[in-house]
Design goal:
Structural class: alpha+beta
Oligomer: single chain
Distance between the termini: 172 Å
Largest sheet: 5 strands, antiparallel
Shape: elongated
Number of domains: 3
CATH superfamily of the largest domain: Histidine kinase-like ATPase, C-terminal domain
Strand content: 15-25%
Strand order of the largest sheet: 2-1-5-4-3
CATH architecture of the largest domain: 2-Layer Sandwich
Radius of gyration: 52 Å
């Protein structure tokens, strides 16, 4: 019995040990499972946070919007910094350009005035103040600074009101203290496209010393011309008077028939002197030019007809375009007739082969049109030594010429606001070209053609 009890006690003890071991094993297993589950949960949370940071999902709208706004704000800040950098560069460039413009304006030799639409001088450089003899021009009314009745004020006012451009005008300006100055002026309006005039730019150049120098040179030229005229007149009179004196001395000693012949020669020399005086007066007298309308086409046809009758062995004709212009028809006819007759006489030695062409052309200029009248011949041409002297009074290449014909032609053309020039043609012969201004309403000019007769 005791043995059974002892055996039963041991068995119970073993069962208790086994139960304790089982409970311990379960506890250890549960703890390990807990640790593994905690580790897995932590890893999942970390992975979810990384995924949310990399690319927010729409499952969390607040996080997605926050991340998106932060990205936009970051980009805006970067763009703002770039704009600030570009703005700083442009500002520095604008300041540099403005300084350069100010330096150029301040140091330019020509005077510069800028007048705004209200008539206030908004800018004036030192050269303008020096040319006008006025200090402190800025922010003054131009009419008050320049003078209410001055020519410069009138030009600026017309430019502001009508937009008229004045190029290379010359005006007299009297500063508050000092003598009258001669100024070269160029004025143009300020506008953008077809917008209204917002001001005017005026460029000024002091021409006072240049004008005085030109006057002195002109005086010297006039004195030299007067000397040549006097010498020419004295030469013509001396020759004629010597002939008259010689025949007059022989009249008492010859027969009545010879005396009559000598008297005729004396009268011929007297007529020559009278012709010289008449031609000289045409050159020396001031021309009174009427303001009539001259029909050039009709006038040229009359000149051609008259020369053809006087020198029939030379073929003369006219071609081209001749427009009407203002002037004195009698004087212009005299000038063209003189040129055409000289051309016909120069090629008359060719007999039937002599040809003269009077051609008309319209030439387009920058601001207005011009009538060109060319008198062309196929004669021997002009000697090189005579080209620069043709229009001098009493210079002639003709045996019986007075040397006043071309001088009178030049005076007539210049008095009409034109010019005349002479040249040799490449194909032979001479060309005398007259250029006369046409009214501003003249239609567009045609292109000039090559010389051909």
């Amino acid at each position: 019995m005791m043995a059974l009890l002892q055996t039963g006690g041991n068995t119970q003890h073993l069962w208790m040990i086994a139960a304790a071991l089982g409970i311990g094993l379960l506890a250890i297993t549960g703890f390990v499972v807990f640790l593994m589950r905690r580790f897995l949960q932590t890893s999942r949370e970390v992975h979810q946070e990384e995924v949310l940071e990399a690319a927010p999902r729409t499952q969390n709208p607040s996080a997605f919007m926050t991340a998106s706004m932060q990205g936009v704000i970051q980009k805006l800040r970067e763009q703002e910094k770039e704009l600030e950098r570009l703005h700083k560069i442009e500002k520095e460039r604008a300041e540099k350009t403005e300084r350069l413009s100010e330096e150029v304006t301040r140091n330019m030799p020509a005077g510069l005035l800028v007048v705004n639409a209200t008539g206030i001088i908004s800018s004036a450089n030192p050269a303008a103040e020096q040319a006008l003899g006025i200090r402190g021009l800025g922010f003054r009314r131009y009419s008050e600074a320049l003078g209410e009745t001055s020519d410069l004020t009138r030009l600026v006012a017309e430019c502001l009101s009508t937009g008229t451009i004045f190029r290379r005008e010359e005006v007299d300006h009297r500063p508050p203290a000092g003598d009258t100055r001669r100024l070269g002026v160029t004025i143009s309006p300020i506008r953008r496209g077809t917008e209204k005039i917002s001001g005017a730019i005026c460029l000024l150049t002091d021409l006072t010393e240049l004008a005085a120098l030109q006057q002195r040179m002109q005086l010297k030229e006039n004195l030299a011309a007067l000397g040549e005229l006097s010498a020419g007149i004295a030469h013509e009179f001396k020759n004629a008077l010597a002939t008259i004196s010689g025949y007059a001395q022989m009249i008492p000693e010859v027969s009545e028939k010879d005396a009559a012949d000598y008297a005729g020669r004396i009268l011929e020399q007297t007529r020559n002197i009278s012709h010289v005086v008449t031609e000289f007066l045409k050159y020396a007298r001031p021309l009174e030019i009427s303001g009539e309308t001259v029909t050039l086409q009709t006038m040229v046809e009359r000149v051609v007809s008259e020369v053809a009758e006087a020198i029939p062995q030379v073929k003369i004709r006219s071609e081209g375009e001749f427009l009407d212009l203002g002037g004195d028809e009698g004087l212009l006819r005299q000038a063209v007739l003189n040129l055409a007759r000289n051309a016909a006489e120069s090629c008359a030695m060719k007999g039937e082969g002599g040809r003269v062409l009077v051609r008309g052309e319209i030439v387009r200029g920058e601001e207005m049109g011009f009538q060109r009248i060319s008198v062309l011949d196929n004669g021997p041409g002009i000697p090189a030594s005579a080209l620069t002297k043709l229009f001098r009074p009493f210079f002639t290449t003709k045996a019986n010429g007075t040397g006043l014909g071309l001088a009178v032609v030049q005076k007539i053309i210049v008095q009409h606001g034109g010019q005349v020039e002479a040249r040799n043609r490449a194909e032979g012969g001479a060309a005398f070209i007259v250029t006369l201004p046409l009214p501003r309403s003249v239609p567009e000019a045609v292109e000039s053609r090559q010389d051909s007769i």
